[in-house]
Amino acid sequence: MFLAILLIYIVVVILPVVFWFWFFRRQDRAEPEPKELLFKVFLGGILVVILASIAEAVIEGLFFPQISAKLAESPDANLGDFVGSFSDFFGFLAIYFMAGPVEELMKFFILKHLVFRRIAFNQVADGLIYGVTIALSFSLIENSIYFSNILSEFSFSGDFIAIVIIRGVVTTMLHVLATAILGLYLGRAKFSNKNRKKIMFKGVFIAAMIHGVYNVSIFFSFGMLTNLVLLLLCFKYIMQELKTEKTQMVWKLIVPGRNS
Predict the structure, then answer these.
(1) Chain centroid to CA 220: how far?
(2) Mean pLDDT, all residues of the chain
(3) Are 50 and 127 in contact (CB under 8 A)?
(4) Among candidates 31, 175, 18, 195, which has minimal Cα distance to 111?
(5) Rounded to 5 degrees, what are φ and ψ at 50?
């Protein structure tokens, strides 16, 4: 039994992380990022998990105390449990939508602190690679916790396997693609002569909306189809942007105040 659970964990939690890291590193073969910096960014994802968890708990406690208490009492509560009250229904959706913006904002702050002034960050595409890296770290920790929680709730059953597959494969893809777009805009901001803050805000906003819509859609009958279409569109956009000359251009100028 233990070996079967371990195998499922490796397949649905570890392998998606390895695959996406390998896939996007292949797109960066011409000007690969320093392994030491990528490792620091990966570790940064652990800090994001901690900060986002604290921020979400504080926001829930301040603005949605009753909903938060009900969810704590019944962690398996779903949308149907809140249909009777509009305020509870709204609060339920708000809590799940809120997680996306909070997490993407935390990823942005940690990512910007770690890489923005690095000389190694010399392409717009680099921002995307760093975004993917921090997203994979975040996803690995979050999905590992979720895997453990679901196992304790459902034991080793068909429902457990189905849930962790969706969580491990699809949700990891969400984190990767949303934060890849955030990183892409961070790269655009670094090599822009004006409106840097506006460009960064746009990247965070887009990533947050993608993440928030995904989190809420799963509670509706059409949610899975909606989310798959959303992720496919994001993937198509990212791959198109990665191929553009502006994204791949290597900036050789050393800007004062930016260290290696």
Answers:
(1) 21
(2) 90
(3) no
(4) 175
(5) -65, -50
